[in-house]
Amino acid sequence: MDISQLGHFQFNNLIKGRIPMILVNLGVDLKSLYGQVEALHIDNCQIVGSTDEIVSQVESKKLPAHYPIVIIDQNGNTYSPLVQALEAKGFNNVYTVKDGLTGLQKEN
């Protein structure tokens, strides 16, 4: 499986530009890295839960298969089952943040 990854610069542009997306947060504190406006965007587009819960939440939004889904975890090691589950449901624009929150913190 080939997983598409976003680097710090790309992820930062999505957040600061308040680009429409689904942000799947696998247990990291992103708001400490961003200001109040960006934190509101994170709150509005973020979903959390187990793999099954996340897939169900994404499906319930009735978004097109190409709608961007970005997954972030602590260090880039735990997202593979979720990516597989989302792609199995037909979502084809799924990205992960390279090296997770740890990678973002190193770049800041």
Can you tell me about this structure?
With 108 residues, the chain is of the alpha/beta class. Helix content is 43%, strand content 16%. The chain has five helices and five strands; from the N terminus they run βαβαβαβαβα. It has a five-stranded parallel sheet with strand order 1-5-4-2-3. α3 (51-60) packs parallel to α4. The chain is globular, with a radius of gyration of 13 Å. The N and C termini lie far apart (30 Å). The model has no long low-confidence stretch (mean pLDDT 91).
Per-chain topology:
Elements lengths: L3 E3 L1 H9 L5 E4 L10 H10 E2 L3 H10 L8 E4 L7 H9 L5 E4 L2 H8 L1
Parallel strand pairs: 1-5, 2-3, 2-4, 4-5
Helix pairs in contact: 3-4
Largest sheet: 5 strands, parallel
Mean pLDDT: 91
Number of strands: 5
Helical percentage: 40-55%
Strand content: 15-25%
- Strand and helix order: EHEHEHEHEH
Please count the helical segments: 5
End-to-end gap: 30 Å
Global structural class: alpha/beta
Radius of gyration: 13 Å
Give the overall silhouette.
globular
Assembly type: single chain
Low-confidence stretches: none
Strand order in the largest sheet = 1-5-4-2-3
Which structural traits does this protein have?
alpha/beta, 108 residues, 16% strand, 43% helix, 5-stranded parallel β-sheet
Concise structural overview:
This protein is of the alpha/beta class.
